[in-house]
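Summary for the steering committee. One of the milestones for this cycle was to obtain a three-dimensional model of the protein with uridine-5'-diphosphate bound, which we needed before selecting residues for the alanine scan. The sequence and ligand used are listed below.
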Amino acid sequence: MSTAPSVFLSVVIPVYNEALNLPMLFDRLYPVLDGLGRTYEVIFTNDGSADRSFELLQARHAARPDVTRVIDFNTNYGQHMAIMAAFERVRGEVIVTLDADLQNPPEEIPKLLEKMAAGHDYVGGYRLNRQDSFFRTYASKLINFVREKTTNIEMTDQGCMLRAYRRPVIEAIVRSGAINTFIPALAYSFSSNPAEVGVKHEERHAGVSNYSFYQLIRLNFDLITGFSLAPLQYFTMFAGLCAGGSLLLVLVLAYRRLFLGAEAEGIFTLFGILFFLISVVMVGIGLIGEYVGRTYQVVRARQRYFVREILETK
Ligand code: UDP
Ligand code: MG
């Protein structure tokens, strides 16, 4: 990452199988940016798309080489890695992230910039009347709640990727070398004067969400374990309580055995308790695994993604 910004605005867009959306995105995004009257660049990261996305990006680069840059990954590394790769290369003083599927209308970018001009170093969007499935909307409300309780990150809508950052925040994110990362939360932890604005939300223009249920769970695990030790701590507390309860039970049983004699009826209750305790242990091991796995990835320090090609001028 070069140190001095050479343009005012960098717009960062991860692209994964968005061939049906890109033409419309180009048509809507560039006029908005041209209308700002400031210097800008748009960086697309092609995150290993299997459709025609990269060809469309190439064509776009050919059409507007002055303001378009394209990073091409060799395979799919996920939305946040795609954004990271662009962050490492941005030339702007202000950086805006945007989804390629037009769920975040590009017309809302000036709104973010206005807020930035008011002196904030991070402006997060939150989606006004969200256009996602009932399930997605409520699952996301639930995870917002969990995040609020387990981390000290305050954010109305963590899932909204329409956000603006000042360069120092982005530089801090890049330096942190985070691997399993949740960019909005990481940015929040580095910013000193965050703000939020409501932005319109539209239905996906075409195609379906790239996130499966499983990936959403992974992402939220990254969010919670990446920013707090609370799950481990709660678990320890809970395990402590269970251990105390079990000990009490053992004492009661020992007392009954000594003074009332042998009794067989309680055997299934005992099994029940045993299974319960084993399941608690299993959850605990899994939880520790989440942290160990992440530690492993950081310690291993393997290159996080592989860039096949970069289309850019200069
Ligand atoms: N995306 C990506 N890599 C992935 C999945 C998604 O670069 O592995 C991009 C995708 O092209 C889009 C953005 O990330 O620009 C958000 O993805 P999507 O719309 O599928 O997520 P949702 O809006 O359902 O949360
Ligand atoms: Mg989307």
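Key point for the committee: Residues 267-300 form the longest helix (34 residues).
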